[in-house]
Amino acid sequence: MAKITLDNLAHSYLPKPESEDDFALKELNHDWQDGEAYALLGSSGCGKSTLLNIISGLLRPSHGRVLFDGQDVTDAPTAERNIAQVFQFPVVYDTMTVRANLAFPLKNRGMPADEIARRVQKVGAMIGMEAELDRKARGLTADAKQKISLGRGMVREDVNALLFDEPLTVIDPHMKWELRTQLKKLHHDFGHTMIYVTHDQTEALTFADKVVVMYDGRVVQIGTPQELFERPAHTFVGYFIGSPGMNVFDADIEGNAARINNVRVPLPAVYPFGSGHMQIGVRPEFVRLAEGGEGVPARVLRIEDVGRHKIVRLDAAGQEVNATLPEGAPVPAGADRIVFDPAGINVYENAWRIAPEGRREAA
Ligand code: ADP
Ligand code: MG
């Protein structure tokens, strides 16, 4: 196992990158702590696979270095990095049995036969293929083949890190949960450094201790699920995570208040004067409906009952706003305002969160 350091890392697929736009991966400095389980979350094309392939050595970064436990491995081939990587689509040997496929990474390293048999049996059970170990991989479904690929990634106990690149894409939905649970158990039992790439927030938030959120080639936030929920560092994190995501309003900031659509909205603290494009972010959980009085004028469009709570879709001066109400909470019949719980408000300048000045709002 190893700590993985990315030192001034950046990557462009172009031979002569000229501007930031030419970089699939913008400059990044980060330590992946030894033994931690990370999810790498972001929408398609944001650079997740590029980053993973740089860590595994499939891709040489155009700028910066990769270190394992302080050792520069930037030019070391994949084989020397001692990493297991599982891809989105199955990579299996069709003519071999499931058992031989699973044994392959161990045999390759000259492990004794009885030890191989023990590990293969165990992993066969983890991926739910104990009964099929002696079948040839040829003719198995894509789903089964992907389980073999996962098993091959899980079979070695001595790896520096385990990298998974959207490994459950072709897996049947109810099996996804089961396999994710097995991966978590594997992490718990062996404490490997794990990086799990996904574009699915539920997968990311249930798998990882720390979630690394990427947007447009940039790591925009690294945090626990709670930190991502309570203090999104970038408006993208706010609306990508949560369902529905954070509401974002253009606003003027005046110390301890914001002004939205000409209505004064109290903030939880005093904020510095920002000269850029100011916004406030409020998750639907912190939006209340009111009738008359204070608040931003809004019109209820529709109400969706999603079981544990209700989602109220509103229109505020042409902008769609979402509010969630706890189960059983009534929607006021004449609701025509939205009011924000100050504790749930974050302030943004040019899409990046800014911290309050440290002074609390006077009562
Ligand atoms: P993700 O895995 O998050 O979907 P990728 O890392 O695959 O994103 O891609 C990031 C960006 O780099 C995309 O704009 C993609 O088109 C581009 N890209 C990926 N691979 C290559 C390549 N081999 N050559 C050129 N551009 C690439
Ligand atoms: Mg990818």
Automatic annotation (TrEMBL):
Q: In the UniProt record, does the keyword Transport occur?
A: yes
Its EC number(s): 3.6.3.-
ABC transporter domain location: 4-241
**Keywords noted in UniProt:** ATP-binding, Cell membrane, Hydrolase, Membrane, Nucleotide-binding, Transport
What are its GO cellular component terms?
A: ATP-binding cassette (ABC) transporter complex, substrate-binding subunit-containing
Q: Which domain of life is it from?
A: Bacteria
Q: Please name the InterPro entries in this protein's record.
A: AAA+_ATPase, ABC_transporter-like_ATP-bd, ABC_transpr_FbpC, ABC_transpr_MalK/UgpC-like, Mo/tungstate-bd_C_term_dom, NA-bd_OB-fold, P-loop_NTPase, Transp-assoc_OB_typ2
Q: Which SMART domains match?
A: AAA
Q: What class of enzyme is it?
A: hydrolase
Q: A GO molecular-function term, please? A: ABC-type ferric iron transporter activity
Instruction: Give the family this protein belongs to, as stated in its UniProt record.
Output: Belongs to the ABC transporter superfamily.
The name on file for this protein is Trehalose import ATP-binding protein SugC
Q: Which gene encodes it?
A: sugC_3
